[in-house]
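Re: your question about Alpha-galactosidase

S., sorry for the slow reply, the queue was backed up all week. Below is exactly what I fed in.
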Amino acid sequence: MITFDEQQKVFNLSNSSISYLFSIEEGGLLSHLYYGPTIRGYHGERFYPRVDRGFSGNLPNSMDRTYSKDDLLQEYSGNNTGDFRLPAVVIKTKNGARMTDFRYHSYKIIDGKPKLDGLPQSYVESDQEAQTLEVTLRDDVIKADLVLTYTIYRDRPVITRNARVINRSDDAFYVEKLASMQLDLTKQDYDLVYLPGQYGVERQTRRKSIDQGIFEMSSRRGASSHHMNPFAAIVDKNTDEFHGNVMATLLVYSGNFKISLESDQIDQIRLLAGINDDNFSWKLNPGESFQTPEAINVYSTKGLNGMTKVFHHLLRERVARGKWRDRQRPIIINNWEATEMNFDAAKLEQIVEEAKPLGIEMFVLDDGWFGHRNDDNSSLGDWYVNTKKIDLHKVANQTHDAGMKFGLWFEPEMISKDSDLYKAHPDYVLHEPGRGMTLARNQLVLDFSRPEVVDNIFNQICKILDDVDIDYIKWDCNRNLTEVYSAAYPANQEGEIAHRHILGVYSLMERLIERYPDILFESCSGGGGRDDAGLLYYMPQCWPSDNTDANERLRIQEGTSLVYPMSSVTGHVSAVPNGHTARITSFKMRGDVAMSSTFGYELDPGALTDAEKAQVKEQVAFYKKHRQLVQFGNFYRLQSAFTGNHVAWEFVSPDKSEALLFMYRKLSSVRYEIVNTKMYALDPDKNYQDSVTGKVYGGDELMNVGLFRDPTHKGDFISEVHYFKEVK
Ligand code: DGJ
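Result:
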């Protein structure tokens, strides 16, 4: 998969679908050559056309006025040494300089994919699955090495990247920026697709043209955030869901990140992705190294649906881990929207008793069971049962006796001022002595850069998990980081705390999943505030939004689906009027939206009418029958929730023997719109029977002729679901 042409000095990373090429140019600069569909060989355009460009400098000691770092497509550019575009690496040395100029030194090709210590990452199950190139560059003035790592998967259009800098000098220096990757591209008419949002409105797919200047997608919240997902895709102008080229980048990281897109003086593109360098500075002592998180790069020639398919498979099969990775996920009932923290033992028992005959498989007890917590003003950090409120053994036993699994909510990274932990260890909080601490939801953030703080929480959680039979954990995180400062570190290391904090979070998760391999973990951060590939490495599910309004969920789930596999996207039916929007949607619509993800309920089953209970039974039975297809099939967006009134999504089994088609209409109109939905990725030669009408259609027919919806169907927020099964 990876070769080096000694004569042309070209590295070629190719598999059957993609090629990625770069060369070693004069002076040892690494120059990007090509990224796209596989080419059989490379014969030529080795030298990028060179121009003597005004105000673009040349290499020291070189008389060649056409050779400039400022317009060369580079693999990883330095700072303040001739490339005026955004740098990938900035290092502050003893003399105060921030210059970096790394030149080629050596390379190594390795079978498989080396592990990154303490960081989430994609992995291989055998060395045949991938090959890795490590290119070492050196800056002789700083006396530092830079290792750029590229892994190409054999059977996927995927290249992962990361970077590591090693201090080979006798003095400490400060890494102020180290991108996980850089991608420089020749001028072309591209668009950018990305996923901005906010609390309750996460991952809203947006597309914009790319113009000269810099556009930044980032987070400085200490979390990947609701507000911007660590994902970006550069697409051809004519790319849509089904056609066209896509170059997508996803950071496997849950902390402060920055993805910058620069279009330079001649409209060349530079994409940089990595830890956010704002407020970042990492002291590197002689002999030490600093490792960046990983970036996953996906290339699709089949539009955005093509990209999605690659991400879904990779994240599900080679980022998510553990016993639950390939297992069908249980149908949950969570008490949060039903009771919030106002519950007692009798109420919980009633929820379990009502849920059991409906076929629901797991009861999750959300916030409010610990310390003396009855509202969100206290007790975070006190992970022991509020025995005045409930007997947790009893709740777990009742749930298990009902034949259901039992899940519990934690928010391990947080602390309330009103808690025993705070009384004992006020210094455990991220804060700067002498400065007021910003409150959010009336809580503070524990300093997870300190191992003893992580140990304290680990021990408390283990005590509960060793004592009570728990099958599932919902891991919440309800505020962002402020006053990021740690009493445990010296002044010259305070720029490390945000990253050290997230490494502490990862270490706690790793210890817990290792010790409790049977537990199913679901991440959450006030909904989807940390829905990223980093957390997926530890937890195969994520609650994508607190917003359970079926209409709003269409966009949230569709945006999330761009990258994250449907087995990881959870969706619950809640009561109406919706708590966030006050919108009323039908029980069927709510069920059909939630069933197009990993399904559950978040309501009081005792408040359901008999007719609604009957619907729950039907939904549960339908979902159990089809969940393998929803959670592990291929997902396609046919008609988008972002652009129209009519939405359609499809799941197809890997062998194309069955498919599920979910169709939604937002608003009704007397126009009686005629809507035709063409299915996708079926086998044209197979025949399929529609479970709703009993009619048999050819796959070719469903894909080319399509299906009509009933235009006379009245009412807002309606849905139709068709299951297609191959018939001979
Ligand atoms: C925010 C979560 O997203 C909700 O689902 C719920 O768990 C609350 N936190 C509990 O405080």
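Residues 610-632 form the longest helix (23 residues). The pocket of DGJ is lined by residues 336, 366-367, 409, 476, 478, 524, 526-527, 543, 546 (CB under 6 Å).

Happy to talk it through on Thursday.
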